[in-house]
Amino acid sequence: MRSEGGRFIPHSMRISFITLFPEMVQQALNHSIMARAQEAGILEIDCITPREFAEDRHKKVDDRSYGGGPGMVMMPHMIQKAVDSLPEPKPLILLTDPAGELFTQSHALEFSQHDHIAIICGHYEGIDERVRTQIADRSFTIGDFVLTGGELPALIMTDAISRLIPGVLGDPQSHQDDSHTDGLLGFPLYTTPREFDGEPVPDVLLSGNHAEIDKWRRKQQLERTKRHRPDLFCQAELQPGDADLL
Ligand SMILES: C[S@@+](CC[C@H](N)C(=O)[O-])C[C@H]1O[C@@H](n2cnc3c(N)ncnc32)[C@H](O)[C@@H]1O
Q1: CA 96 to ligand 1 centroid distance, Å
Q2: Is ligand 1 within 6 A of the CB of residue 153?
Q3: Which residue owns the Cα nearest ligand 1 atom 20?
Q4: Segments in 85-172 forming alpha helices (H)
Q5: How far is Cα 223 from Cα 203, in angstroms, rounded to an integer?
Q6: Residue 1 pLDDT more than 50?
Q7: Is the CB of 150 under 6 A from ligand 1?
């Protein structure tokens, strides 16, 4: 967040989707927190479709795979033209790719500090490899499974990035307690009713003793991470006193 004459000016971020299905993107971002961030001018979303740069009368954007195999592959030159149409200074160009690096919360935090990023969405059988080698700066998967297109991964990345831009969430503390922020899973949350189907809210959360509540929450984070995500637990930076809680 920048400060001007003592007033805090939230930084605004633009995310450009390079996609054959712009309606899919726009509709998904037209609700709730993402819609409010756009109305407040903190987040700007736009879509560029490679089809508008196709030169033949059928507006062809894909072709068969060299070497054979099923399905159609998106061609690189329309994607290059879509990227070239973006204004200077050029944004960071991300590619959605099941063979890319795993997208994590720390990438979301890193990219939320950019003014402009663009995300290329593949579709059909995939995208010509030269988009990865020549056009994209980095390529990311959202997990070890394959979807029909890159629009959902790009939307997921956009949501994760945007909620970290200062001013998007009402209370900045919200994301500091989230799972994956400090390498651990989040603690369990409870609201009314005090008892649901025989299961009560833990007494400590009703005690008003904030030191005890913090200790209970930290213990829950450590135990949950150790049990459900030992891979994360081995890498987590533990704090003094954590060992006593386990
Ligand atoms: C059917 S997939 C292509 C799969 C490709 N043939 C492969 O084996 O890696 C079509 C497009 O969806 C997107 N996609 C699918 N699964 C994804 C994932 N897990 N993470 C990121 N992007 C994904 C990518 O943009 C990809 O080019």
Answers
A1: 7
A2: yes
A3: 141
A4: 105-111, 129-130, 151-162
A5: 18
A6: no
A7: yes
Q: Would the CB of 191 count as within 6 Å of ligand 1?
A: no
pLDDT tens, position by position, 35-60: 999 999 999 999 999 999 999 999 99
| Residue 132, φ and ψ in degrees, nearest 5 | -70, -45
Residues noted as catalytic: 98, 125, 163, 178
Contacts of 92 (CB under 8 A, 6+ apart): 111, 114, 116, 117, 118, 137, 138
pLDDT at 29 over 90: yes
Q: Which residues of 185-197 are buried (b: 16+ CB within 10 A; e: fewer)?
A: bbbeeeeeeeeee
How far is 95 from 132, CA to CA, in rounded Å?
Answer: 7
Q: Which domains does the chain have, with CATH numbers?
A: 2-162 (3.40.1280.10), 177-245 (1.10.1270.20)
Distance 104 CA to ligand 1 centre (A): 17
Side chain identity at residue 234, one-letter code: C
Whether the full predicted model's pTM is greater than 0.90, yes or no, is yes
Q: How far apart are CA 100 and CA 133, in angstroms?
A: 12
**CA of 130: how far to CAs of 78, 134, 180, 235, in Å?**
12, 5, 33, 34
Q: Is the peptide bond before 202 cis (omega within 30 degrees of 0)?
A: no
Residues paired with 141 in a beta bridge:
102
Ligand 1 centroid to Cα of residue 150, in Å, is 6
Would you say the CB of residue 157 lies under 6 angstroms from ligand 1? no
Segment 70-86 mean pLDDT = 97
